[in-house]
């Protein structure tokens, strides 16, 4: 897996994790951003994307008006010239066997090419992950990442 790459997740992952708050696969068309790997566990952290820019801009603006930082979302124009919302609050752990394929545009693997943007997203994601691991809930429809992490770790122990 290539850091800062976009990937399509196997349907099997969503079935095995059985968390109805996971952002769906959209029939294999929802790209997920590979943010970073926990090298001690070989667990990858993925961030789902959304094209509902207006919805997420309103949330970001509301937080800013309240004088708060918005680490749970990040909106950026990607190399395909479309804006995408990185739903950091909905990030989740995954292992490589659940990756279907690279997300491609015209046969080319889509990557986040701006190192600055990639660093910003990773900083936000690490901060949010720390909060999620402490039990912080950002939304009522947030996936249970700790249960998923345990399932993945149990699965890898059985298969090693």
Keywords, please?
33% helix, alpha+beta, 160 residues, two-stranded antiparallel ribbon, globular, 25% strand, seven-stranded antiparallel beta sheet, 9 strands
Write the layout of secondary structure elements.
Elements: E1 6-9, H1 11-17, E2 32-38, E3 43-50, H2 53-65, E4 73-77, E5 83-87, E6 92-94, E7 99-102, E8 104-105, E9 108-109, H3 115-133, H4 145-158
Antiparallel strand pairs: 1-2, 1-7, 2-3, 3-5, 3-6, 4-5, 8-9
Structural features, described:
Helices cover 33% and strands 25% of the residues. By secondary structure, it is α+β, with helices and mostly antiparallel strands. Strands 1, 2, 3, 4, 5, 6 and 7 form a 7-stranded antiparallel beta sheet that branches. Strands 8-9 form a two-stranded antiparallel ribbon. The radius of gyration is 15 Å and the shape is globular. The mean pLDDT is 88.
**Fraction of residues in β-strands:** 25-35%
Principal-axis shape equals globular
- Average predicted local confidence, pLDDT: 88
Low-confidence stretches: none
Helix content range: 25-40%
| Structure classification | alpha+beta
Q: What is the number of strand segments? A: 9
Note the run of SSEs as H and E: EHEEHEEEEEEHH
Distance between the termini: 20 Å
Indicate the radius of gyration in whole angstroms.
15 Å
Tell me the major beta sheet.
7 strands, antiparallel
**SS summary, helix count:** 4
At a glance:
With 160 residues, this protein is of the alpha+beta class. Helix content is 33%, strand content 25%. The strands form two sheets. Strands 1, 2, 3, 4, 5, 6 and 7 form a seven-stranded antiparallel β-sheet that branches. Strands 8-9 form a two-stranded antiparallel ribbon.
